[in-house]
Amino acid sequence: MIRVLVAEDQSAVRAGLVLILGSAPDIEVAGEAADGEQAVALARELRPDLVLMDVQMPRLDGVSATRIVVGEGLADVLVLTTFDLDEYVFGALRAGASGFLLKNTDAKDLIAAVRTVAGGEGIVAPAVTRRLIAEFAATPVRESTADPAVLRELTRREREVLSCLGEGLSNAAIAERLEMAEATVKTHVSRMLGKLGLRSRVQAAVLAQELGI
């Protein structure tokens, strides 16, 4: 079972999300939070596999809550937002979120996204990720805090994989491009994230764009 904590301040939206997730045989709603502080507290108490996190919540916003949840290793975070590309999304991904979804996502795609993130793939939809990365790259005024020196820890193959992640490619697409087994790609991604101190593939994609590789 995939245990999910739903963090959403609008009760009607939260009830809808709980209903959708509860309809999946392999997903259990472990708890519900109405604000960011409650989300962090329940994540610490319940230790869910994943937190479905709204970015705009009272008391503590979703970006700050994501940073705490991910930083303490409490759960993976899948961000919910009304806008497909905005500063909240960038902030949440930098904070370690594994991906993001729009609130108008249909039930089937919501369930699929939860399964995808819980399975460790981390990229909800490569097409959406590519749009995100393209928007990120097209905004040079956004300050980058990435240090190119971090790449010294990576092998040549790991750098190639990082570059592919920067394009929003899935494991299967990376395997095809680099002519290696998909299982080998997963191994490279895991080692690369560990060396870079990152929690998600999307974080790695953003880093790749910031470093221009």
TrEMBL record:
<keyword id="KW-0804">Transcription</keyword>
<dbReference type="InterPro" id="IPR000792">
    <property type="entry name" value="Tscrpt_reg_LuxR_C"/>
</dbReference>
<keyword id="KW-0238">DNA-binding</keyword>
<dbReference type="GO" id="GO:0006355">
    <property type="term" value="P:regulation of DNA-templated transcription"/>
</dbReference>
<dbReference type="GO" id="GO:0003677">
    <property type="term" value="F:DNA binding"/>
</dbReference>
<feature type="domain" description="HTH luxR-type">
    <location>
        <begin position="147"/>
        <end position="212"/>
    </location>
</feature>
<dbReference type="Pfam" id="PF00196">
    <property type="entry name" value="GerE"/>
</dbReference>
<feature type="domain" description="Response regulatory">
    <location>
        <begin position="3"/>
        <end position="118"/>
    </location>
</feature>
<keyword id="KW-0597">Phosphoprotein</keyword>
<protein>
    <submittedName>
        <fullName>Response regulator transcription factor</fullName>
    </submittedName>
</protein>
<dbReference type="InterPro" id="IPR016032">
    <property type="entry name" value="Sig_transdc_resp-reg_C-effctor"/>
</dbReference>
<feature type="modified residue" description="4-aspartylphosphate">
    <location>
        <position position="54"/>
    </location>
</feature>
<dbReference type="GO" id="GO:0000160">
    <property type="term" value="P:phosphorelay signal transduction system"/>
</dbReference>
<dbReference type="InterPro" id="IPR011006">
    <property type="entry name" value="CheY-like_superfamily"/>
</dbReference>
<dbReference type="InterPro" id="IPR001789">
    <property type="entry name" value="Sig_transdc_resp-reg_receiver"/>
</dbReference>
<keyword id="KW-0805">Transcription regulation</keyword>
<dbReference type="InterPro" id="IPR058245">
    <property type="entry name" value="NreC/VraR/RcsB-like_REC"/>
</dbReference>
<dbReference type="InterPro" id="IPR039420">
    <property type="entry name" value="WalR-like"/>
</dbReference>
<dbReference type="Pfam" id="PF00072">
    <property type="entry name" value="Response_reg"/>
</dbReference>
